[in-house]
Amino acid sequence: MRDLRQPWQHLPLRLRLTLWYVVLLALTVLLFGVYLHVQLERRLITSTDGALTVMATQMLSVLDEEAGQPQFEESDFQATRPPRLDEAGFAARLLTPDGAGVWDGLGAYTDVPMLAEPGEGYSQRMGVDSEWRVLMQPVRHGGQIIGWLEVAQSLDSMEETLGTLRELLVLGLPLILLLAGGGGFFLAERALRPIKDVTLTARGISASDLSQRLNYGGPPDEVGQLARTFDEMLDRLQVAWTQERRFTADAAHELRTPLTVLKGQIEVTRSRARSPNEYELTLDQLKEQVERLIRLSSDLLFLTRLDQARPMQVWEEIDLGHLLASLADQIAPLLATKQIQLTNDVMPHLLVYGESDLLIRLFLNLLQNAYQYTPEDGQVTLGARKDSETVRVSVTNTGSGIPAAALAHLFDRFYRVEEDRSRNTGGAGLGLAMAREIAHVHGGTITVESDLGKGTIFVAPLPHYPGR
Ligand SMILES: Nc1ncnc2c1ncn2[C@@H]1O[C@H](COP(=O)(O)OP(=O)(O)OP(=O)(O)O)[C@@H](O)[C@H]1O
Ligand SMILES: [Mg+2]
Questions:
Q1: pLDDT band for position 358 (50/70/90)?
Q2: Which fold has domain 312-463?
Q3: Percent of the chain clearing pLDDT 70 (strictly above)
Q4: Atom of ligand 1 nearest to the CA of 427
Q5: CB distance 449 to 396 below 8 Å
Q6: Which of 81, 84, 127, 201 is least surrounded by CB atoms within 10 angstroms?
Q7: Which pLDDT value is given to residue 394?
Q8: Which residues contact 338 (CB under 8 A, 6 or more apart)?
Q9: Residue 81 has what pLDDT?
Q10: Which of 298, 416, 434 to mutate to test the pocket of ligand 1 (most atoms within 8 A of CB)?
């Protein structure tokens, strides 16, 4: 399949982070440079305008006049100021009222372009080789405009300052980016190094040895959390995997025992000629073993199916009161064979939502156990009542009870209490495992409590509506 990712997505994360960082920083510095340039230019123009105003006011106050024509004062300006004014890039001139002719001038005034229409105020004019900032003001005499005063300042020095700024920015930008890029790469590398370590360790963990852990020693930051989550996942996987292996081994073992018995019986029978009666007896014994095998394999199959996701469509509303009452009726004759007294303590109208076949199997397993593990003349109580969220079903029986050490494993597959293993009663030890799975499927649980020498109680609280 084609890889639809963009080419840059193939770059290592630390390089991508650094690139992003550098691009963003370049944009920021550029924007900042433009802002600086604009602001500085504005400031310089404002201060030039200030100087021009002061100059114009000063000049207007000391203007000479000859035959109706304004003139710059002889002594002061022409003798001392012009060289200094020139140096400072300053020029001034007096224009005719129509702005077309020049009365008088100071400095490099010929370089300053003339306006077609005279008008009061500031303007910027492009001369032959420099730009000028010009202030134009009317010269009045008795309320009448008799000419115009133009004071101009060359913008050369301002251009020079701005040019230096541009140079600094252009030279400084690559340097800044280089430093920032290097620093960014270093930081990204440092931040991502733990991830690299985690990846390398994780790669070394093989499916056959799930006992290895990352055991990350770093701080509990994002990477630390990832490593811890990973270790926890491995814990769960290891438990599941160990259980799976044990289950397979146990199942194989349980299947082998009846098969070995079958083989032995067949061999013994075939070792010499037998009477029809003897054959009949052997066949009956074989049938018993085969039935045991069938039960075992169908139980295993049932458990495997329970593990898989179940469709909820087959669920229905079930009255547990009704269901348990009929189960009690069915089991009563069996209990009677051991003179066990059955007490029915089931309330009516106990609604739960679920699959009736499964629930029947759950309670039948508990009742069968009660029958198998209650001594003669004992007592069994089937109880069920409703509380706010669940229906609590309980099966209590008298007897020797279950040792505390065994209680923790009681619901494990193939687990049987030591003393019961040798007995003929009971099966493979799958009954309670099944019961618990079914309870889980219905959103409930099963718990057990046992008093040695007195008896045992199994309690299964099942929610009315699982998942709500
Ligand atoms: N009511 C009970 N009283 C005393 N011990 C019990 C009771 N129920 C179960 N046990 C013990 O728990 C073990 C596991 O029960 P479970 O129903 O899972 O298996 P099983 O009855 O031996 O076989 P299976 O149910 O598969 O035929 C039993 O072997 C028995 O030792
Ligand atoms: Mg059982």
A1: very high
A2: Heat Shock Protein 90 (3.30.565)
A3: 94
A4: 27
A5: no
A6: 84
A7: 97
A8: 371, 374, 375, 376, 377, 378
A9: 57
A10: 416
Ligand 1 atom with minimal separation from the 395 CA: 1
Q: Using an 8 Å Cβ cutoff, are 91 and 81 in contact?
A: no
b/e code 290-308 from CB counts within 10 Å (16+ = b)? eebbeebeebbeebeebee
Which stretches of 214-355 are DSSP H helices? 222-270, 276-307, 320-336
Measured from CB, residues less than 6 Å from any atom of ligand 1 are 365, 369-370, 372-373, 397, 399, 402, 410, 415-417, 420, 426-433, 456
Query: Tokens in use for 458?
Result: 């199994």
Percent of the chain with pLDDT over 90: 54
Quick: pLDDT tens for 328-352.
999 999 999 999 999 999 999 999 9
96/102 Cα distance (integer angstroms): 6
What is the model's pTM?
Answer: 0.60
Using CB atoms within 10 Å of the CB of residue 324, give its burial: 0 to 12 exposed, 13 to 18 middle, 19+ buried: buried
When pLDDT is cut at 50, 70 and 90, the band that residue 11 belongs to is confident
- Confidence at residue 377, expressed as pLDDT on a 0 to 100 scale: 94
Rounded to whole angstroms, the Cα distance separating 456 from 305 reads: 29
Mutational test site, ligand 1, from 432, 434, 451, 452, max ligand atoms within 8 Å of CB: 432
The neighbour count for residue 351, using CB atoms within 10 Å, is: 14
DSSP conformational letter for 313: G
Place of tokens 């309320």: 143
Block residue for tokens 């123009």? 45
Q: What is the CATH number of domain 222-306?
A: 1.10.287.130
Count how many Cα atoms sit within 13 Å of the Cα of residue 35 in the half-sphere of its side chain: 6
Helices (H), ranges, 271-319: 276-307
Q: How confident is the model at residue 75 (pLDDT cuts 50, 70, 90)?
A: low
Is beta strand 341-346 parallel, antiparallel or unpaired with respect to 379-386? parallel
Q: Where are the domains of the chain?
A: 13-162, 222-306, 312-463
Quote the CA–CA distance of 468 and 461 in Å, as a whole number: 15
In a mutational test of the pocket of ligand 1, which residue from 369, 395, 397 has the highest number of ligand atoms less than 8 Å from its CB?
A: 369
Parallel, antiparallel or unpaired: strands 390-398 and 455-463? antiparallel
What per-residue confidence (pLDDT) applies to 391?
96
Q: According to the CATH classification, is domain 13-162 in 3.40.50.720?
A: no
CA distance 38 to 30: 12
Whether the predicted pLDDT of 310 surpasses 80: no
The Å distance, Cα 366 to ligand 2 centre, comes to 7
